[in-house]
Design a protein that fits this description.
D-Maltodextrin-Binding Protein, domain 2, 257 residues, Fructose-1,6-Bisphosphatase, Chain A, domain 1, eight-stranded mixed sheet, alpha+beta, 30% strand, five-stranded mixed sheet
């Protein structure tokens, strides 16, 4: 059965690949920094990539709106809202580390219904419509069947600039003793997609923004995984997440004395 969101997914994939090709072309060049923070970087390419994405999506669906890391566009009261992270993994990108992606989600009347995450360097496109089979370059994917923490590969965030640093480092040390390996990619969206594809098993982060995980959440949940988001603040855009393959006893493993 064809979903009413299929046309939106096609547009998102086209926009993600368009922006991804642009970012790949610029990857080895000199990158202009718009803002350098203590633990983050904002590039001119972030804005230019989002402009490419927004122009493509709004041309296809002019009644929709854009909520992005680099600002908003369109009618903010629209039923259809795109949630865009033009470069998820900007610090990696700036330092020449080829682990980053373009992330595009669709929210319909407040509900996430579609997600597309494109890795330009590996040319991997993860996509899903909520409740349907998620895909990686047209092939179906699903979460791992691992159910023991000792078998798991996990991502444990330990932020340093948002008040979560000390607790995050304790959590990192606590979990690292229980699992096979800890991996930190530097891209939330790719990490969640790797769980969806069975490459990773869990991800815990104390501070994350909606555009970092919205698209990947749809893909992960469609693949059989779970993601719990706890908003922080009035906007509900930032918060903490616990994501896993749905089989690991993750919450039990996170308990500390």
């Amino acid at each position: 059965m064809i979903s009413p969101y299929t046309a939106y997914l096609n547009a998102a994939e086209q926009a993600a690949r368009l922006a991804g090709a642009f970012l790949r072309e610029q990857f080895y060049g000199i990158k202009q920094v718009d803002e350098a923070l203590a633990h983050d970087i904002k590039l001119r390419l972030d804005k230019e990539s989002q402009q490419l994405i927004a122009a493509h999506l709004l041309a296809a669906f002019p009644e929709s709106a854009i909520l992005g890391e680099e600002g908003s566009a369109g009618d903010s009261d629209a039923d259809f809202q795109w949630i865009v992270d033009p470069i998820d993994g900007t610090v990696n990108y700036f330092y020449g580390i080829p682990i980053f992606c373009v992330s595009i989600a669709l929210q319909h009347c407040g509900k996430l219904v579609m997600g597309c995450v494109y890795d330009p360097m590996q040319q991997e496109c993860f996509s899903a419509i909520a409740g349907q089979q998620p895909m990686l370059n047209g092939r179906p994917i699903s979460v791992s069947t691992r159910s023991q923490m000792a078998e798991a590969v996990v991502f444990i965030g330990h932020g340093t600039h948002d008040g979560s640093g000390e607790a995050g480092i304790r959590r990192f040390a606590h979990i690292s003793k229980q699992v096979r390996k800890i991996r930190i990619l530097g891209s939330a969206a790719l990490t969640l997609c790797y769980i969806a594809a069975g490459r990773f098993d869990a991800y815990v982060e104390g501070r994350i923004s909606l555009w970092d995980f919205a698209a990947a959440r749809v893909i992960l949940e469609a693949a059989g995984g779970r993601l719990d988001f706890q908003p922080q603040g009035e906007s509900g855009i930032k918060g903490s997440i616990v994501a896993w393959n749905g089989r690991l006893p993750l919450y039990e493993a996170l308990q500390m004395d």
